[in-house]
Amino acid sequence: MSSQVSIARLLAPDRILAGLKAKTYRDAVVQLLDRLDAAGLISDRAAVEELVDAEIAAGALPTLGPHALLAHYRTDAVQELAVAIATSPRPFAFAPPKAAEAVFVVLILVPRSAARYYLKTLAGLSRLLRNPEVAEGLARATSPDEFLELVTQRDVVIRPELTVHDLMSRDVHSVSPEALLSEALHLMVRHRRRGLPVLSDNGEVLGMISEQEVLQHFLPQVLGGATREGEQPEIEDVEVRYAMQRSVMCLSEDQLISDVLGTMLTESVSQFPVVREGKLVGFLSRTDIIRKLLEHSV
Fold this sequence. Notes:
Number of helices: 11
Radius of gyration: 28 Å
């Protein structure tokens, strides 16, 4: 998904069924399938209906908040995400007890390759329909055009997945392998970095030097040095090449932040060089993610 998409743009008038008349949940879903089928979005109607029947047989009908029943299926019978919605001014008689006030049936068909886009769409619809005032107005709509006008007024934008390129720092500080460890430490303190990439003359990432390596080298000397009272222990400095991590996990700019966060949690890694064609172009740390996500949410 390369650009922002709004809920209103996902819903065409022919995919909105205002004033649904259906006696059963299956009947409601089939009427919505008819809309998507007529729009030429379904390549294998029988396969989709099999999914509907299997869900009903399992006996656990999903909901999307207190006002909506949700029929959602991942299937190769569609080539793109398709959404249809049915409304009723009064709660559906066939709604389960956990959604006794449901006045919407939402049908989402999504190709297996579009899982992240589907989750974003689901979240957007949930935000829209969970608002009691909005839900009441949409349920009273007597035509698809009226429904869409209300959606547009309260529209929800589905933002694209954030990538490393969106959040990485481009003002990158680095050191050469010949730099002294003390120089790397001063850079980290000055620029509030917990680590720095170590670069070759042509910009390739050779390794990382972090607070951990600095402490491992200097701390034993500071704590264990035998000196006369009042004298400072003599500290042996070394070149970064002798202390740096040589096994470094680098990121590409197009990787998803959601995947990077998973790696941070499972691998206990908090910072990454970002490379393009083997050359350093940015840096991403846990702090960068937290700070910039907060900026996006304000």
